[in-house]
Amino acid sequence: MMCSKEKPEQGKFHPNPALIQGFLKEEQHRIVYEQAERYPSEANLRKLNSAFQQFYTEIQLTNYLTMTLSYYARNYSKQTAALQGRELAVLDQPAGEDQETSKKEMLVAKEDQTVYSWEQAIHDPALLTAIQDLPSKQKQNLELHFIHQLTHTEIAEKLDISQQAVSKSVQSALRKLRSVLQEGDAR
User: Fold this and answer.
1) How far is Cα 134 from Cα 177, in angstroms, rounded to an integer?
2) Which residue, among 88, 85, 40, 33, has the nearest Cα to 55 in the 3D structure?
3) CA nearest to 184, candidates 120, 129, 139, 136
4) Which of 31, 36, 34 is nearest to 49 (CA)?
5) Listed residue (92, 149, 143, 93) closest to 117, CA to CA
6) Cα–Cα distance measured from residue 87 to residue 2, given in angstroms and rounded to the nearest whole number
7) Cβ neighbours of 35 (radius 10 Å)
8) DSSP codes of every residue in 118-149
9) Residues 2-45: pLDDT tens digits?
10) Cα–Cα distance between 180 and 57 in angstroms, integer?
11) What is the pLDDT of residues 84-112, one digit of tens each?
């Protein structure tokens, strides 16, 4: 190792200490190194050199892939942000020349508006009765998911609960409904 600022000797490799530590962390590499250190034969030195070159190549490949993925992720984020900005600009425009409401306002249902009720959406009386017999939380989750077409994540945000809780609630309600409807078909 060099301690001064003098130039490294031509043809000599002066690896980074962190690189060597990373190489020696693996037991296989440590064994090859110790053999080359104790018994400095040409074969042992070749094994050590080969193992280090393979390790170094893997490090370089990992670094290259990481940088490439990072580059593409940044570009993807930039493109997505640009597209969202364009979509927002289009949606914020008036829906028509003679209308003052924007396209966005026409698409988004207001919080206080009810698009459908259970009675309007379900025509099977057995299914409607089975849904009305569910606990209120399950009914609410089913209504938000199937009637208002919200995703589990959107429901979770709206009700301030976890997405997993919404998913479990919906799945449990669907199992109950299936069992009730299958019992009705069996009769």
Assistant:
1) 9
2) 33
3) 129
4) 36
5) 143
6) 59
7) 16
8) HHHH---HHHHHHHHTS-HHHHHHHIIIIIS-
9) 344 445 455 555 667 888 888 889 999 999 999 999 999 999 99
10) 62
11) 666 555 556 666 666 666 655 655 555 55
Distance of CA 59 to the CA centre of its chain: 26
CA–CA distance, 125 with 180 (Å, rounded to integer)? 12
Q: How far apart are CA 22 and CA 31, in angstroms?
A: 14
Name residue 20's amino acid.
I
Residues 51, 28 contacting (CB under 8 angstroms)? yes
Say how many C-beta atoms besides its own lie within 10 A of residue 138's C-beta.
20
Q: How far apart are CA 127 and CA 124, in angstroms?
A: 5
Could you give the angle at the alpha carbon of 113 between the alpha carbons of 110 and 114, nearest 5°? 130
> Model-level pTM?
0.39
Report how far residue 165's alpha carbon sits from residue 162's, in angstroms, rounded to the nearest whole number. 5
Largest CA distance in the chain: 94
